Amino acid sequence: TLTGLVVGNTFLKGENLRSRIKPGVAFAKARLLRLGIILYGFRVSVQQILQLGAGSFLSAVAMTFSSLVVGAMVGKLLKVDRSVALLVTTGASICGVSAVMAAAPVVEEEGASGAKVSVALATVMVFGIASMFLYPIMWTKLPWASLSPKIMGIYTGATVYEVAGVVAAGNAMSPAVASAALLTKLVR
Asked: Which parts of the chain have pLDDT scores under 50?
């Protein structure tokens, strides 16, 4: 994603290119992204969710809604542009970059420009990448974070917002953490 942003903004500037690719980008944002999220969700069975217990489901729901509420409040407190705050909060609460892209058309009607969407995407990506590296370090180095693999997996799946980040962080810790984290993320 980052490479595409750099190459596109460096070498492919111009209105002609933008107007040619706009229909394809709109189709991918509106249809393909949503279809991909739906198809990925089909991988989770009710039995898998029940194996992790109610804690996995409750933590995923609690993190999603509390992130939305706290993110909106912090955005207002820090006087961040409302559109940017909504997009970043949506990305952090739901599914990272995918959520930002899915929410962008709705927020754009309220005044979010392409630049504001780009700021939100960059913010979500930076924190997502940081979590992939920090969670495994936290789990091994901090005494208070020495949780069981199942609990650390539930925590990781409930708090890391990109599926790729959940997989990377979970596998860096252990297969058991990765399994619980991915299931929790897919429930989320």
From this structure: none
